[in-house]
Design goal:
By secondary structure, this protein is mostly helical. It has 17 helices and no strands. Bound molecules: protoporphyrin IX containing FE. The site of protoporphyrin IX containing FE has 22 residues, from helix 2, helix 3, helix 14 and helix 16.
């Protein structure tokens, strides 16, 4: 079991470039809010298609992809970059190599992703799901991913810590897979493959954004923050490795579960279904480890906002990973394929699990980055409850709408598609209410972080010594 020494901890306190991490997170906050606003506006258009008039920049098709790319790349990916620049130095015991490159990455990512988002509103997008940014954005994005990945590898190569902690496994793998995946999905597949081959690779790309980028980044954060927050050792390092290799082995084959009943070869679809089932293994390893690591620390749930978000994210992870494999089955897909059920599932994973874990990490490190204690516990509470209640409303209505629509189309005769649309439109209205609450929750969070940095109470010695990061 690796225990990081007190001396190493004090060295570690200095290895993080706090300004860099702060900058990255501030930019992520902007996209959290703007991206979610995009979601709320899109959702209103489901009930009121004329909402916002006929301005092309605000047409449904543009706003929808603006929302999706805004939260997946603008919010989550930017936050993941910031978190990587926090965790990698801590875990290696040295500063990032080539410190200027870190600024090139953060600044150029900000410029390029903003151009990507504006391009979408201006109507320039390519037909790649979760890869809609046009090709002139994809080239620099691929270069930025390659650059930060190389920087992380060289930092690890020069590390002072002998042990490679599990978060580093997830971080290095996530960055490497995603560099390759981004190039494959955005620069190779659209131009060199057609028809069924193109669809199969698109399925691989799309699901790998979730499984080989968002999941490893989120899991790296969980494995990093869980022991430092609870001050308990990770329950089982062996289990964490089983989870890591399970993810690496099974995730790449799951993509075709998005295209069941399509002309893609049946055996490819069957392998995708089986691999989806096998994902239960890495997920349960993460959850078992989390529950084991929380042993004796459950009381922190009532007093620590970061623990609340960590545990809530874990609960949603259990649901996601029960829902994911079962909805990959052909019998279930017959009902829910192409319905709102899938949209509910997508939010469960990216919002319910990985956004919650990211918030947990940010609540923990923000006082370290700013030298100030969290400005308002009340606002943190509002953030938590608005997010939980808002998301519960959104998820339940989307799943309900999916079952109603799927049920009508599959189990009733003579049902026109438009009848299903009329039947589920009340669900959409309620979804907008849930989404608005979620956005208000996020606004409380961003305002709280901003005020913390401006006027939060300065951290004292007790606070600092309580937050020593010892990874065991
Ligand atoms: C950080 C928060 C959020 C994340 C990570 C997120 C993520 C996603 C993802 C991954 C999709 C694609 C779903 C699919 O194609 O299956 C999506 C679509 C969508 N989201 Fe969000 N979302 C967030 C917040 C919101 C909010 C607050 C709303 C407000 C109601 C919202 C409304 C929508 C709508 C309307 C769509 C399009 C659904 C469709 O095409 O049927 N999202 N979002």
């Amino acid at each position: 079991m690796a225990v990081v020494s007190e001396k190493a901890i004090s060295q570690k306190e200095e290895v993080v470039d706090k300004k860099l991490v702060r900058m990255s997170l501030y930019y992520a906050f902007v996209w959290l809010l703007v991206g979610m606003l995009g979601g709320v506006l899109t959702s209103i258009k489901f009930n009121y298609p004329d909402f916002l008039g006929y301005i092309p920049w605000l047409a449904f098709g543009r706003l929808r992809v603006f929302h999706l790319n805004g939260v997946a790349f603008g919010w989550f990916t930017t936050a993941a970059f910031g978190m990587a620049y926090y965790m990698v130095p801590k875990l290696t015991g040295i500063k990032m190599v080539w410190p200027k490159v870190s600024y090139v990455v953060v600044y150029s990512w900000a410029v390029v992703s903003t151009i990507g988002q504006i391009s979408l509103l201006a109507g320039y997008s390519q037909g790649v799901e979760v890869g809609e940014w046009p090709v002139w954005v994809d080239v620099p994005v691929s270069m930025i991913f390659a650059l930060i990945t190389t920087q992380i590898f060289f930092t690890i190569a020069n590390r002072k810590e002998k042990h490679i902690y599990v978060s580093l496994w997830y971080l290095t793998a996530g960055f490497t897979w995603s560099t390759i995946n981004y190039v494959l999905g955005n620069l190779i597949n659209p131009y060199f493959f057609a028809g069924v081959d193109n669809a199969a690779i698109q399925g691989f790309y799309l699901h790998s954004v979730v499984g080989l980028w968002i999941t490893p980044m989120g899991t790296a954060m969980l494995y990093y923050f869980m022991p430092v927050i609870t001050k308990n050792p990770v329950y089982s390092h062996k289990l964490s490795m089983i989870g890591f290799w399970g993810l690496a082995l099974f995730y790449p084959f799951t993509g075709a579960h998005h295209y069941l009943f399509s002309p893609i070869d049946t055996w490819v679809q069957t392998i995708a279904i089986m691999s989806s089932m096998m994902l239960i293994m890495p997920v349960w390893s993460v959850i078992t480890n989390q529950v084991g690591t929380m042993k004796g620390k459950w009381h922190m749930l009532s007093s620590h906002i970061e623990v609340k978000f960590m545990v809530l994210g874990a609960v949603f992870y259990v649901i996601t990973c029960f829902q994911g494999p079962t909805q990959a089955l052909r019998s279930m897909q017959q009902i829910i394929h192409f319905t709102d059920w899938v949209v509910g599932h997508a939010h469960l994973a990216i919002y319910g699990v990985f956004t919650m874990w990211t918030w947990a990490g940010i609540y923990y490190i923000w006082p370290k980055l700013t030298g100030r204690q969290i400005y308002s516990q009340k606002l943190s509470g509002w953030h938590f409850w608005l997010s939980l209640v808002g998301f519960a409303i959104m998820a339940l209505t989307l799943w309900g709408a999916g079952l109603v629509q799927g049920g009508m189309l599959n189990l009733e005769s003579n049902v026109a598609f438009i009848d299903t649309v009329k039947a589920i439109s009340p669900f959409w209205a309620v979804r907008t209410v849930g989404g608005t609450l979620m956005m208000l929750g996020a606004a409380c969070f961003v305002y709280n972080m901003y005020m913390t940095a401006k006027v939060g109470r300065l951290v004292d010695e007790d606070f600092v010594s309580n937050r020593q990061e010892v990874l065991v």
